[in-house]
Design goal:
The protein folds into 2 domains: about 210 residues, D-Maltodextrin-Binding Protein, domain 2; about 200 residues, D-Maltodextrin-Binding Protein, domain 2 (3-Layer(aba) Sandwich), CATH 3.40.190.10. The strands form 3 sheets. Strands 1, 2, 3, 4, 7, 12 and 13 form a 7-stranded mixed β-sheet that branches. A 4-stranded mixed β-sheet has the order 9-10-8-11. Strands 5-6 form a two-stranded antiparallel sheet. It is α/β, with parallel strands linked by helices. It is built from 21 helices and 13 strands. The protein is globular. Helix content is about 50%, strand content about 15%. Helix 2 runs antiparallel to helix 16, helix 9 crosses helix 10 and helix 11 crosses helix 21.
Length: about 450
Amino acid sequence: MMRRRTTLLASCTALALALGATACGGGPVAAGGGGKSLSGQTITVAGVWSGSEQKNFQKVLDAFTAKTGAKTQFVSTGDNVSTVVGSKIEGGNAPDVVMVPQVGVLQQFAKEGWLKPLSKTTEQSVDTNYASVWKKYGSVGDTLYGLYFKAAHKSTVWYSPDALAQAGVKPPTTYDAMLKAGHTVSDSGLAAFSVAGQDGWTLTDWFENIYLSQAGPEKYDALAAHRLKWTDPTVVDALTTLGKLFKDKQLIAGGQKGALNTDFPGSVEKVFGPKPEAGMVYEGDFVAGVAKDQFGKKIGQDANFFPFPAVDGGKAPVVSGGDAAVVLKDGKNQKAAMTFLEYLATPEAAAVWAGAGGFLSPNKKLDLASYSDDIARETAKSLVAAGDSVRFDMSDQAPAAFGGTKGAGEWKILQDFLRDPSDPKATAADLEKAAAKAYQG
């Protein structure tokens, strides 16, 4: 099946080059008229990716080179994108394109005056191929600056099929049923959940899924923009719901202390490693990559997922994250950079990484057959089907001082709440105090 699919993609590419227009439903030409129109030009692309992600993104860059003749160079920034990019701009060595992992950072770049608005061709592709929410998250005001190329599905609960089968439980569809199933798993000999409390960002993801389902998308948007205070009763309700899990020592591997000493890779290991301690771990679709690459699990057989369940009669949440491509004003090759983003907006570009694995695209024109396995297809289908009900990771929309700093802000406060979840109102007050300071700054 994959060999046939590869052949079809190759035929599409060849036809697109021959006609000077993208064939097979790919949208506008992303190669400046086809052929090798960018031969002799080089674009530099900066992003947080390393390891297998960088290796797979390189395949996309290579495909662009084959299509246009342009050379590419990838620069890994590490996690602190804004600092690295800012220093490169000041040093006169700005990259042409940056893959920005947070809405807040994209907005910061735009307000600094660092970004070029994307071309009409790219904007047309976004209007045609994406749910409108992705244009919203890529825009500042009415100007589109960012193209979301790679997305994450952060509403997936991963589990060991053997553990659930041994306990005699099936994947639940409500939060209360999930906790009840967790107790049954615990009674069978394993803790229900492995929680990565050492990494504060995982706790923000827990909160966001509960809040989106329980309070609804309008309240979620208001809280994300700090138009709603964190002392609002809906926040207290969500913390109370989350606290039911945190304070139940039967549900969490190692209890609260064990969770606070477990990082994200460690949380996956406790479910899918050689000595399992828990039956389930909540995090995004990227759990599959860790389970597969580090612990040799066959996704769909040894490791599977169910959607994060609905809370208190609300709708099942779909929280996402993603990396947006932006073009810097100070880059040395803006024309080629714009052409590269036009290419990234096509299903053709997304299909390259989808076939390599470890990737989801918000591009609804991407054929699901492009994905390398059934579980990736299922998560991608869920993400695209959610349409405009998708909500971007709330902490990634906040100022970094509140939503993205280790040992501070929301990360630290939710770690304290995991340690002692007895007073949700006090935690909400602490969150509001930190948020008010960060948003004013």
